[in-house]
Structures are given as structure tokens and as C-alpha cells.
């Protein structure tokens, strides 16, 4: 071995550092590790963003639920107007040919005591004439006086009467006398009908002669209670082909 070879063998390890495959990474190892680190970082960020989105979504859902609940309670707090109450009653219009009209309301045909009995100032002949037009609307009005404000509407003693828009005097609440109760007893087998009863039946008036008969019209009425200040009775016409309409209104006015 020459001297040059000996020097090369001795000096080469000093000039070139030893390579350790386990410690020195391959050229692509650093990129892979960096990529893995970047990948882990992006995954962590995505997870954080997902958690934040989930939290914000939960918060939005909670706010929406709270808003819906608030709207529901606000709607519940709104005062809903009361619906009109409707019931079926028996109504009888009667009166002497030469007298004036009475209006009687009963719960049913067997009730001897009327719900309301009104003496109207309109003459029987005039009412028959008004009914010839097919439409009759009777409005009974009373002012809201302090002494009448708290009483039931049907208990008001005196009314101002209008028929088809024209003022026709007054109407008064009456109690059924024996003659009226006898007339209702005679009509208890009838729900719907019209006719003439002999003189001395039911109207509470003294007849001048036996020819002064009592005319009557009996039918079902729809009783509508709109409020404490308004009630009405509407004739239910059994004849579908008839255009006859008859309504009686009880109104408590502010003036």
C-alpha cells in the first residue's frame, strides 16, 4: 500500500461525515412530515370551525325557538273578540185586527212563561202591509242611561221603535197575564203556523165585538246575542221559496 492510499483512507472519514440512514431523512421525508403537519393543522382548524358552526347553529336555533315562543305568547295575549251566541227559540207575533202588535219569545213551545214579551206600537194592519214587501226589520233602541246600563238588555222596560228605518213610537216590556198564558197554551202543539183565534184570546186588549179576532204568526227564530248591548231575533222561514224576512233587533245605544 502506498503512502497516498494510506493518507486517503485516514483522511476521507474526516472530510466526509458519516451517514446514518436512521437519523438522516430522505429527501422527500421532510416534505412528507411538513405535509402531515400541515394536514394535521388544517384538520384541527376544520374541526374548530365545525364546532364553532355547530355552536352558532345551536344558538340561532335557540334564538329562533325563543322568538317563536315569544310570538306565541304575544298572540295568546291578544284579546280575541267573543263570537256571537246563537240559539233557536219560538217566536209569536200576534194582535187584534184593530189593535197593535205583540211579540212573544219562548224557549220552546211548551214554555208558558215567555223569555220576553213586548207590546209594540205598530198597528196590526200596518205590520201586515209592511210584510207585503217581503222585508221587515224592527229596531228597538234604548239609550245607555246609568240606571239601565247594568241591567239585562231584554229587561229594559221601554224602547224607541223603528220599522224599516221609520220611527213608529215606542215598545214596552210586559208580563204575561192570564189571557196571554191561555193563548200560549192553545198554541203549544204548534211550532210553525199562522191563523186567527177567536176574540178574547191573548192580546191583553178588550175586544169591542166577537168579530175582533186575534191574528197570529208563530215560527222558529234564531236568537243571536252579539254582546251585552245587542241581541236580535231572525225569522227562520220554513218555506224555502218564500222571500219573507223578519228581524227584530234590541240595541243599547251610546247616545
UniProtKB/TrEMBL annotation:
Pfam hit, one: DUF617
GO annotation terms (biological process): hydrotropism
Protein name: Protein MIZU-KUSSEI 1
Domain of life of the organism encoding this protein: Eukaryota
Region (Disordered): 21-42
Amino acid at each position: 500500500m502506498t503512502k497516498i492510499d494510506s493518507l486517503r483512507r485516514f483522511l476521507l472519514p474526516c472530510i466526509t461525515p458519516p451517514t446514518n440512514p436512521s437519523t438522516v431523512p430522505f429527501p422527500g421525508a421532510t416534505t412528507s412530515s411538513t405535509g402531515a403537519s400541515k394536514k394535521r393543522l388544517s384538520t384541527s382548524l376544520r374541526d374548530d370551525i365545525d364546532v364553532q358552526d355547530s355552536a352558532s347553529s345551536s344558538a340561532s336555533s335557540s334564538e329562533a325557538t325563543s322568538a317563536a315562543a315569544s310570538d306565541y305568547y304575544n298572540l295568546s295575549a291578544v284579546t280575541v273578540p267573543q263570537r256571537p251566541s246563537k240559539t233557536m227559540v219560538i217566536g209569536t207575533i200576534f194582535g187584534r185586527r184593530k189593535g197593535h202588535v205583540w211579540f212573544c219569545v219562548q224557549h220552546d213551545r211548551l214554555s208558558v212563561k215567555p223569555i220576553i214579551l213586548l207590546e209594540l206600537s205598530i198597528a196590526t194592519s200596518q205590520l201586515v202591509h209592511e210584510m207585503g214587501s217581503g222585508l221587515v226589520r224592527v229596531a228597538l233602541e234604548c239609550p245607555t242611561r246609568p240606571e239601565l246600563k247594568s241591567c239585562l238588555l231584554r229587561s229594559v222596560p221601554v224602547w224607541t221603535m223603528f220599522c224599516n228605518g221609520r220611527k213608529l213610537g215606542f215598545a214596552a216590556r210586559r208580563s204575561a197575564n192570564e189571557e196571554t198564558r191561555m193563548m200560549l197554551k192553545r198554541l203549544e202543539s204548534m211550532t210553525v203556523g199562522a191563523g186567527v183565534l177567536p176574540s178574547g184570546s191573548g192580546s191583553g186588549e178588550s175586544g169591542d165585538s166577537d168579530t175582533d179576532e186575534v191574528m197570529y204568526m208563530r215560527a222558529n227564530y234564531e236568537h243571536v246575542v252579539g254582546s251585552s248591548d245587542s241581541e236580535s231575533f231572525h225569522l227562520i222561514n220554513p218555506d224555502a221559496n218564500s222571500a219573507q224576512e223578519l228581524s227584530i233587533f234590541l240595541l243599547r245605544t251610546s247616545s
